Batch of 2 targets.
Target 1
Amino acid sequence: MQIHILGTSSSKPAHGRSVSGSVINTEKGAIIVDCGEGFQERIYTHNKDLKEKKSLFRVKTGKICTILLTHGHLDHTWGLLPFLKTLSLEGRDKPLTIIAPTTHEIINRLFETKNPFAEISDLEPSNVDLCFQFRFWWSLGGTREFLDFETNWILVGTNENDEIGKTNAILIDPLGKSVEKIDDFKDYTNGIEILNIPTLHTVPSCAWWIKEDDKKGKFNSELAEKNNLTKEEIQLLAKGESVGNHSHLDYRSSEQTGPSVLISGDTSGENNGFINFSKTEKETSLLIHEATFMEENLDKAEKYLHSTAIQAANHAKLIKAKHLIITHYSSRIKDTKYLKDEAQKEFDSVHAASDKDVINLTSNSIEINS
Ligand SMILES: [Zn+2]
Ligand SMILES: [Zn+2]
């Protein structure tokens, strides 16, 4: 799994840092998490830089299957529609899925009325609710009418106290005007395993956990040949059947766990979503967590429902992540070294992300190319 971090600034570009957006390459395809203003420009220049550096890792836009949004603030969403338009101009014809959080009340209203455009103002949504943004994007050209590919628009209900893994999501077709419930995101991610973890911010928000599949161990055909087994017997062992007193388990190395990343989006440093997630069996190789403020600005973090670096580190400890990368810095932070130093008081493996970092992740190793 490789993660390309294409923006580390909160709310506005500052000190050479852009707003949020990341690309996660897995073996089954690529997923984007957040898509702030200028996202397509950043992918383009990032790829150009990687090509010049002769890097093995690129962002292949044709491989992108899903865009996940963490919440509706514009520094996380405003690059989405121009990016869709560019994909269409580049000749994309494969479907693309967009998944974004909203309130359970809005999900239920749209589902009960079976109307993507149902009145929701009485539910007092935030002015940047992603239900509104979906509707703007459709009206501005985000549908099959104007794009050369299908788009699956999915809203997922989120609340800090949700049970982890219990999904309340709807697939919306604005042209056919249909709304249907979906149970499994995998049908819309090219089979990549993802999970929404509710977080706590000033608008409905969630973190996204993304996992690469486990890999079967390698079959030891040399050992089978050395033991004078016939071709048919070797085939049976390779299929997972035992032959006589030869157990198939002796002929295959152990399974390799796939790496997983959890990307926080914007969140308060204390919330039930992370506590509930820590009680599940899910492993997290890497937590990418916002650290908008230094500890001296804890009052601001609490007021605006953001985190300090120490809170990010505490979340990494809580969910037993192997590594922590901090991001989403306030413009008051010039040198991210101080944030990293604070986080390292609580957690060993910390990196303060820079724009265009490429992280190569396995379940037991991490390599960061800045
Ligand atoms: Zn933000
Ligand atoms: Zn925000």
Target 2
Amino acid sequence: MSTKTLKPDAAASGTITLGGDLTIHRMGFGAMRLTGDWGAPEGLASANRLLRHLGKLGINFIDTADCYGPEINELIIGEALPHFPKDMIVSTKGGLIRGGPQWFQSDGRPEYLRQCVELSLRRLRVDHFDLYQLHRIDKKVPVEDTLRALKEFQKAGKIRHIGLSEVSVAEIEQAQKVVPIVSVQNRYNFGDRKSDDVLNYCEKHGLGFIAWFPMASGELTKPGGKLDQAAQSHGVTVGQLALAWLLHRSPAIIPIPGTSSIAHLEENTAASSLRLTDDEWKEIEKAYN
Ligand SMILES: NC(=O)c1ccc[n+]([C@@H]2O[C@H](COP(=O)([O-])OP(=O)(O)OC[C@H]3O[C@@H](n4cnc5c(N)ncnc54)[C@H](OP(=O)(O)O)[C@@H]3O)[C@@H](O)[C@H]2O)c1
């Protein structure tokens, strides 16, 4: 398929300002795929190369978490830190224990979150986080207690802004009573819009909506799917159309596509420049139902 020559420049995705003072390009990068399900990635050298490439493409927002790897994801990002441009924002998440490749359990005890934050600071080699996200709300612990632990770090200057992940509108409102919430990270893509209500809330109230799983783990990049025909007629790849749709869907959305390949990273970033008319998007929307 002949594809449009789109420049891979995240700046073309526009900017969003979180919490009134944290401005990033909307097209971000999800780092989870740099490490495998468990343990060190086989291609550690290529992971390092990819991290150093992000800044060249104007990407200045990286999403990671202490449970990716676990720990190793943060460690390799920490090592790459000197090679990042000055405006690079590395945001991590804590509060989700990883006991094995597919074993996750939320832990919102304040003492656990304190440990998460301190160890992530150490692994990422920074003295504060511009955005720290609570990976999951632990139903066994009052969320107020969990968030008060993060608020203490905010007072101490170790966390600038706080975000949530996989939450409902009611949970955002409950959290806002304890501490200002500047972003939400929920699963969202062209074919999965269960979080539409949360997205609409974020847009209305000025929160960033970080869309994880933006390409349905690669499913949305495959030819033959719902977006295939439209992608072909616009001369772009299916994945590019899926990412451009997210940018078009709401100015609150920050897509964080994940990849371990520089070629895919460039292709994904190039979606930042893809512009269609409203009528063209309406036509594409018909494929959703
Ligand atoms: N908050 C949460 O609970 C949560 C949960 C999961 C993930 N996340 C975050 O969200 C980020 C993104 O989610 P995700 O990685 O699960 O899903 P995704 O970004 O939708 O998909 C990533 C997958 O798509 C493939 N891919 C990427 N670009 C491609 C392209 N241009 N052509 C073909 N295949 C391509 C990748 O393989 P290649 O490596 O071969 O490119 C990878 O397997 C993660 O990195 C992580 O930071 C958050």
